[in-house]
Each structure stands twice: as C-alpha cells, then as structure tokens.
Design brief:
This protein is an alpha+beta fold and 175 residues long. It is 44% helix and 17% strand. It contains 6 helices and 5 strands, in the order αααβββββααα. Strands 1, 2, 3, 4 and 5 form a 5-stranded antiparallel beta sheet that branches. Helix 4 runs antiparallel to helix 5. It is globular.
Length: 175
C-alpha cells in the first residue's frame, strides 16, 4: 500500500512538472493562433484616438495598403507580451479598395504607431501561404516549420493577449 502511495505521489509530481514546462513555452502554432491580428474591442483606451494619431496611422498603412480607405477600430490598451514591454496600445485597421479589403494590426511602441512584431510575422506567414501552390509540399512544410520557429515568444510568464497592461489617466488613479 505504501509503494502505491509513493508511486501515485511521484506520478502527480511528474505531471505537475510536465504541465509547468508546457506553460513556460507553449506550442508556437497555438500561440500564433491566439494572437492572430484581429479587431479587439476591450479594454478601451481612456482617450480613443486623436487627429494626429489618425494621420500617423494613415502614413503607416500607406506602406502596406496603398490607396485605400481606412476603417479604424477603437484603440485598446495593452498588448500581448510578444510585442515587447514598450507596447502600450493597439488598433486594428481595415483598408478597403473597390476590389477587396485587408486588415492590419498596429501597435503603439514608444509613442509611435508601428506594425508590431506579431503582425510582421503574420505578413511573412501570409506571403508564404500565397506561394504554397507553387511549392513542393515538403519544401512548403519545412518553410512553414521554420517560420513557426521564428514566431516571437515571450520570455517569462505568459500574460493573456486580451489584457496585458492597463493604463489609466492620472486623474483616475488619484480617486
């Protein structure tokens, strides 16, 4: 009976170690799926967006989505940790042309709107997928695996992508 108890305790301990290891470095495919650029509606930034920021968004979008009408989502506060500690806010824009529409997630890093690390990775992934039909299956699978190995991963504890940081105006903090 004592041996069974020791074995059960050892099994539980081993499972705990396996689970802890899995939480430290999740599968990049799963994390990429969670972080796929998309519109987020919360938590909203206290002040949505200024005219200056709209012009800044247009300049950034022009590099990736030329000659298009922009639809700008509300600005949300917080970024997934893969975007780095300097990222404070995100916005999702949709560029519409007469033929199609395309989305792009921008991150506010060091007080400037940029195409963030995760969105840059997804642009490379979309480019690879567009070439899939012209590639040998094995070559495509190797390229895809290599790209997933390059997916930006957090160092340290993972924080849910929905709400990693929350910034409040100083007036609200004093209350």
């Amino acid at each position: 009976m004592r041996k069974v108890s020791i074995l059960m305790m050892a099994g539980v301990f081993a499972l705990g170690l396996l689970e802890a290891g899995a939480q430290e470095r999740p599968d990049p495919r799963y994390r990429a799926h969670l972080l796929a650029p998309k519109r987020r509606d919360e938590p909203l930034r206290y002040l949505n967006i200024s005219d200056y920021e709209v012009r800044e968004l247009q300049l950034v979008a022009e590099k990736y989505l030329p000659k298009a009408l922009l639809n700008i989502s509300p600005v949300v506060t917080g970024c997934p940790c893969e975007e780095g500690p300097q990222c404070t806010d995100q916005v999702y824009i949709v560029a519409e042309t007469a033929q199609s529409s395309r989305g792009l997630q921008l991150s506010r890093v060091r007080n400037a709107w940029v195409v963030g690390t995760v969105q840059q990775w997804f642009l490379r992934y979309d480019e690879l997928r567009s070439r899939q039909g012209q590639m040998d299956f094995q070559k495509y699978m190797r390229a895809e695996s290599e790209l997933y190995r390059e997916f930006p991963m957090c160092v340290g504890d993972l924080v849910p992508a929905e709400n990693t940081t929350v910034s409040m105006p100083k007036a609200e903090i004093k209350k």
